[in-house]
Amino acid sequence: MTQASSSHLQPLQDLLRECRKVIVGQPHLLERLVLALLCRGHVLLEGLPGLAKTRTIKTLANASRMDFRRIQFTPDLLPSDVVGTLVFDPRNLTFTPKKGPVFANLLLADEINRAPSKVQAALLEAMEERQVTLGEDSFPLPEPFLVLATQNPLEQEGTFPLPEAQMDRFLFKLKITYPNASEEVEVLRRADGREEAVQPVVDAATVLQLGQSAARVRLDDAIREYIVRLVQATRPDHGKAWKGRELLRCGASPRASLSLQSASKALALVKGRDHVLPDDVISLAPDVLRHRLLLTFEAEADGVNTDDVIRALLGAVPRP
Predict the structure, then answer these.
(1) Taken in order 111, 287, 61, 130, is the CA torsion positive or negative?
(2) Spans of all domains in the chain
(3) Model confidence pLDDT, tens digit, residues 275-306
C-alpha cells in the first residue's frame, strides 16, 4: 500500500489495542466490529449469557469519542421509547419533538428479540434510511450510525424473532462462543483488579474518513463476479446445481452482494492492502450470509444449519 494508505491503519490498530485491554481473545469479533464501523453497517451478536457481548460493545464505545446509547429491550417497550415522540406544549399549542436514544453514533439494542415486533420495526427506518420521522418531519441521525444488537439463542420463550426484513438490514450476524481455558484464566486475572483503563483514540470524523478510504480499495471484476455467483447460488433452484437437492427456500438479496463487496474492501484495508483478494470474500461470507438464508423444512429436519450450507457453497462455487 502507499504510505498515505498505511497511515490510515494506525487509528484502527489503536482502536483494537484499546479494546483488547478489556476483551480477552475474540479477535474475530473485534475485527468484524471494526469492519462494521468502516462500512457503516449494523451487527447482530448471538451468544449465550455471560460471553461479554454487551461489554464488548461498550468497550468499543469507550475507545471512541462518539455518542453511545443503550436500550434494554423488554416486552413492555414502546416505539416512542426508541425513536422519540412529539410532546404537546400547552403554552404555545404546538408539538415539540423529543428525540429518543436512537439519536447516537453507537446504539446498543440489548436483547433485541425481547421486544414486540412494533418496537423492532421502529428501528427499520433508522437502520436503512438513517433518519427518524416524528409527525410530519424527518430528522437525520448522526454519522456514523451503527446498531449493535444482541440476542440469546436459547431462551426463546416469550421472545419475538426478528423478521427477515429486519435481519437483512444487518451487515453481519456474529456467533459468540466460549473462551478457551487460558483466555478464561486471563478473564479472572483482569477481574481481580488488573484491567487497564480504556482511552478514546478515534472520533466520528476519523471513522468516516477511514470508511471513505475503504471504499476506494480496488476490487477486480473477477472478484465482483465471484460475489454475485455466491449470492445467486443461494436462491431457489440454484442450489440443485451444487448440492444435488434444494436446501434453501429463500436466498440472499442483492443487499448481501453489496455487503460482501463493502466488507471485503474494509477487510483489505484493515489487513494493509489496497486491493481485495478472494480469501477476503471467503472469510466474510459466513458472517454476511448466515442470517439471510432460510432453510427448507427437510434440511432443518436433517439437522442442517446455515453454516453447513455456506461451507458447501464455498466449496462448490469456483473461486477466481
Answers:
(1) negative
(2) 3-207, 217-316
(3) 999 999 999 999 999 999 988 888 888 888 88
Is-contact 169 124, C-beta < 8 A?
Answer: yes
68-72/248-250 β-pairing: unpaired
pLDDT level of residue 55 (50, 70, 90 thresholds) = confident
The CATH number of 3-207 is 3.40.50.300
Q: Which amino acid appears at position 65 of this protein?
A: R
We find that the CATH architecture of domain 217-316 is Orthogonal Bundle (1.10)
Give per-residue pLDDT as tens, 223-263: 999 999 999 988 876 666 666 467 888 889 899 999 999 99
Could you tell me which of 72, 121, 126 has the C-alpha nearest to residue 103? 126
